[in-house]
Amino acid sequence: MDHLLEIRNLKITTLRGKDKVYLLDSVDLSIRKKCSFGVVGESGCGKSITASAILGLLPYPLRVAEGSIRFDSRDGEKELLKLSRKEMRQVRGEEISMIFQEPMTSLDPIFTVEMQMFEALSFHHPGMGKGEMREIALEMLHRVNIPRPEQTLASYAHQLSGGQLQRIMIAIALINNPRLLLADEPTTALDVTIQAQILHLMNDLKEQRDTSIIMITHDLGVIAETCEEVAVFYAGQIVEQAQVVELFTHTAHPYTKGLLRAVTSLGGAQRKLYTIPGIVPPGGQWSRGCRFAERCEQCMEKCREEMPALREIAPGHFCRCFLQDREVEA
Amino acid sequence: MRDYIIRRLLTLIPILIGVSIAIFVVMQLIPGDVVSGILGIEETPELRAMWEAKLGLDKPLIQQYFSWIGRAVTGDFGESFRTGAPVFPEIMNRFAISAELAILACIIAWIIALPLGILSSLKRNSFIDRIVRVVALLGVSVPNFASATLLILFFSKAFHYYTPVKYVGLFENFGTNMEIMILPAFILGSVMAGSVMRMTRSSMLEVLRQDYIKAVRAKGSPERVTIFRHAFRNSSIPIVTLIGMQIGALMGGTVVIEQIFSIPGLGQFTLTGISQRDFPVVQGCVLFIAFLYVMVNLLVDILYTFIDPRISYS
After folding, report:
1. Which residue from A248, A277, B35, B76 has the highest number of Cβ atoms inside 10 Å of its Cβ?
2. pLDDT digits (tens, 9 = 90+) for B7-36
3. Are B200 and B113 in contact (CB under 8 A)?
């Protein structure tokens, strides 16, 4: 396999009453090895459920309706959607790990940090002794810059701060040296200063190891800081995808432009913060035309009638917008 | 923790005094008294005066109460008006029988309720979940005297099986004792099972959608570990609370079942005491039940600290 992970035509549905409603519509993604890939979009665009689908952890009643997720694991290529439960368990935490948005609620409140770190090891290395596990756990805590590792091991989640907990979650996620780390808004719930620390930490760890990262966020600043390639999600579809520099310098899709304008910055004249009018249409209420049409300032008649295709507008730069066609034609 | 337990035990004193006053007043308010019960149609003013003097009922009410409580604090709960036998040892005998019934009922309830509640939360909205929910609703809503009568009828008509009428102790003959106890225990247990099942299901559903469950699964946890070590333990606090309340209620709440199956337990003893206006018996039984209630609740509160490290009493 050329890529570490290849998602093809992924469709996810949920149940609304008795109706099947699409939440994710034909998403294709390819993640290169040793790459950090950003997935950006507003809430409800389908970013998080894509990550959950990769690990087979979609909450009821969501399910994958169609598609394939191929993963280049240590022992050969695997089709993740076709794995048995047992095979999927071997992938989780060992080859693909995940960290979550809310570190405060990501650790089980009634067990110590030590026990939960040991679990991550023992699920995949049943024979490992306590002493060895302790050594590895301490080493990991040290790597994620936890000040007093010994003391932290004996702590419960409610005795630690959000930043510390997220470091611990990262330590747990990386403890088995996974090939891919899914980071689902890992800094959203943290203070701004802690956010920067966590992002630096993730960058450092990525440099040291061969782990690829899928960084899911609604914050383009985080993408700029950490990612090499980025896909912009809107209403269950990818609307734009490119290398980070290309995306920021040659932004093509009106939605991406809107997101960029909505980023606050300290430098320059303070203008009123831009917001994209309206909200993301929920699954089941998508129009047959372009899904962003309702909120788009450059909406044309065609946009309401017909769905634009995701087209390559420059090498490696994909965009789903009729405006681009016009520019290409012109 | 030790201080906490001592403080909790000290609250027993006002509770028991309050309960004893309430019982004393209520017993006075019920029409009829023990003497007319004893004498029946042979009652004459002379005989009545003699009995009242003998039982101490001729003294003012306040004095009656204080002479009773004065003895009670020394551990002497007096003698039955009817039989003259000391009340306390009899309560202990009866308690052993009721406790056996309660324990059997709990075991049956838990064996039914916990696995089904967990299963139903895992297979939400499936066929099995619907069945479990209907059964749980039946368990909660069918009054136990109705299910008891129906079951007795069912066994006698369908299998010509009759539960033994004369009570045999656990240590006299284990087999016969079980034969007597199992049906009433099942009926009490099924009522408990209904609510425990519903509580287990809803509490599990609540925990299963927490982030840490997803995080545990993302670590590659086998379902068994996810469900029992993480989900069930986290959802057990409301379940333990409910079970504690049920055990407390069982102590006094077996009256009807003991009556139907003629089991000489604490409930039956209390009921007989009330119908015969046998004040020392009623007072002793009710106080003892109140005491058990407080103790069970204390145990539940202590149990919380073992389940959840965030709970501590200091």
Report:
1. B35
2. 888 988 898 889 889 988 888 888 777 787
3. yes
Structural domain for A111, as ranges = 107-177
What value of ipTM does the predicted structure carry? 0.89
Residues of chain B neighbouring A85 (CB-CB closer than 8 A): 223
Query: Among candidates B138, B34, B92, B51, which has minimal Cα distance to B284?
Result: B92
pLDDT in tens, B111-163: 999 999 999 999 888 898 999 899 888 888 888 888 888 888 888 888 887 77
Q: Which of A92, A156, A158 sits opposite B217 (nearest CB)?
A: A92
- A186 Cβ partners below 8 Å, 6+ apart? A99, A100, A101, A166, A169, A170, A198, A202, A215
Asked whether residue B110 is assigned to any structural domain, the reply reads: yes
CB contact under 8 A, A100 and B219: no
- Smallest Cα distance from B231 to chain A, Å: 9
**Residues A320, A226 share a domain:** yes
CATH number of the domain enclosing B148: 1.10.3720.10
Instruction: Specify whether A309 is located in the same domain as A228.
Output: yes
| Residue B56, domain member (yes or no) | no
B208 membership: H or E segment, kind and range: helix B174-208
- pLDDT of residue A268 exceeding 70, the answer is no
Give the mutation candidate from B209, B212, B236 for the A interface (greatest A CB count, under 10 A): B212
Distance, CA of A222 to CA of A39 (rounded, Å): 10
Other Cβ atoms less than 10 A from the Cβ of B13: the count is: 10
Global model pTM greater than 0.80: yes
- The C-alpha of A128 sits at a distance from chain B's nearest C-alpha, in angstroms, of 16
**B157: in domain:** yes
B70–chain A nearest CA distance, Å: 48
CA angle A186, A189, A194 (to 5 degrees): 75
CA separation for the pair A265, A280 (Å, rounded): 24
pLDDT in tens, A112-166: 999 999 999 999 999 999 999 999 999 999 989 899 999 999 999 999 999 999 9
Q: A117 and A188, same structural domain?
A: no
Question: A-B interface: how many C-beta pairs under 8 angstroms?
Answer: 76
Domain that holds residue B96: 87-208+239-307
Quick one: how many helices (H) and strands (E) in chain A? Answer: 12, 12
Q: Is B219's CB within 8 Å of A169's CB?
A: no
Q: Could A57 and B214 be called an inter-chain contact, meaning their C-beta atoms sit closer than 8 Å?
A: yes
* Statement to judge: residues A25 and A51 lie in one domain: yes
Q: Does the residue A147 lie in any domain?
A: yes
pLDDT for residue A183: 94
Q: Which residues of A touch B309 (CB under 8 A)?
A: 109-110, 156
Same domain, A188 and A40: yes
pLDDT, tens digit (0-9, with 9 covering 90-100), for B96-113: 999 999 999 999 999 999
Closest CA–CA distance from residue B311 to any residue of chain A (Å): 10
* Same domain, yes or no: A250 and A138: no
Please answer yes or no on whether A169 and B217 come within 8 Å at the CB atom. no
What is the residue-averaged pLDDT of chain A?
90
Q: Are B94 and B289 in contact (CB under 8 A)?
A: no
